[in-house]
Amino acid sequence: MPKSVEVGVNYWPSRYLPPQAGAEFARQLEATGVVDWFQTWDQLVSFLPQALWRADVTPMARLSADCDSYYNAGMVAVLAANATTRLNITTTLDAVRNGPAELLQQMLTLASTTPANVALQFAAGELKQCKPFGWKRSQGLARMEDIFVIVRKLLAADGLIDHDGKHWTYEGAWIGGHFPKVPKLWALGGGPQLIDIATSHADGFISMVPSAFASPDQWGAQVGEIRAQLERKGRDPQAFTCGFWPFVLLYRNDDQRERLLNNPITKWMTAAFGRLHHGAWRAEGIDLIFPEDWHYALRMLPHQMSRDEVDDVVGRVTPEMVEKSWLMGTPEEVAAQLRPWVDAGADYIAPSDLAPSIMEPEEQPEVLAAMIELCAQLRASSGAVIGS
């Protein structure tokens, strides 16, 4: 029997729209009956260089002068939660730029805004929104562990707590003992250290495919190791969420396919995210564009790159790299491609589609319709029922 999976749809919290647009988007998702989760993300700047945000690359540049104007993701998530009742809510958070007690306040506020489920996806940070703003990305994993441990202490305590951590020292700390509803904490990313932190302190692990796990077998092996770690640590694997963001290109016809596959944005994202550990391309017979040890979170500063530098990266991306970096096709075809990954061990997936950044403004309703159809296909094939 196919594995049941819950599906999330991403919302880009752009400041070129009013914040209430996130709430309206959430209402639309809930009304479909085939989407389980509203997902948004915490970013200070985009993954795309401003050098690519121009009208000859994306029609959306005619409507917004930059791709970096984001609202606070947590506040948008609260608006979405307040506008819905059955739609689960999740957003990413950065372990570098926020303190544990402050994050816990934010998480408790969001969780108590909706009767549905809430999960926070903690990442270890990215150079592009750490270094320019005075933060050290290298501290990300240590800060993540501190956050998880301190949050657990605060939630479990009936009085003051102390904590001598790697980056935070708490002495006689307390934020009250009333927690109407506690959200789930998911670790977002990959690598042995993050996974050890997740299986020790978190409620789930979220990653990306095919960029972090190039095949269902690779993903399944990782899920197996996570479950083994949980058992060794005396934790219930069935209570732990494993999921991923699949990178997809959805289209309906050959014209849309050609525009998506040949667009410089697709090629840039292929170079940066096709394989998160860039050197992994070598084992697949692909020439490297960046140094072998390059990883977007550790090395990428897109807004410090000139247009010539960006164009050089884009020009070196081959059709084979694009084909290997994205699950692509009609919603039905992509759902079929995703099924082996889901069956290998996934409780949650949030497809990440580039089409909204590339297609014409008048095509955006069709773009969203394709994503909703993908969700419907995935949930129908798993026999899932919304709200279950």
UniProtKB/TrEMBL annotation:
<keyword id="KW-0560">Oxidoreductase</keyword>
<dbReference type="GO" id="GO:0016705">
    <property type="term" value="F:oxidoreductase activity, acting on paired donors, with incorporation or reduction of molecular oxygen"/>
</dbReference>
<dbReference type="InterPro" id="IPR011251">
    <property type="entry name" value="Luciferase-like_dom"/>
</dbReference>
<dbReference type="InterPro" id="IPR036661">
    <property type="entry name" value="Luciferase-like_sf"/>
</dbReference>
<feature type="domain" description="Luciferase-like">
    <location>
        <begin position="73"/>
        <end position="347"/>
    </location>
</feature>
<dbReference type="InterPro" id="IPR050564">
    <property type="entry name" value="F420-G6PD/mer"/>
</dbReference>
<dbReference type="Pfam" id="PF00296">
    <property type="entry name" value="Bac_luciferase"/>
</dbReference>
<protein>
    <submittedName>
        <fullName>Luciferase family protein</fullName>
    </submittedName>
</protein>
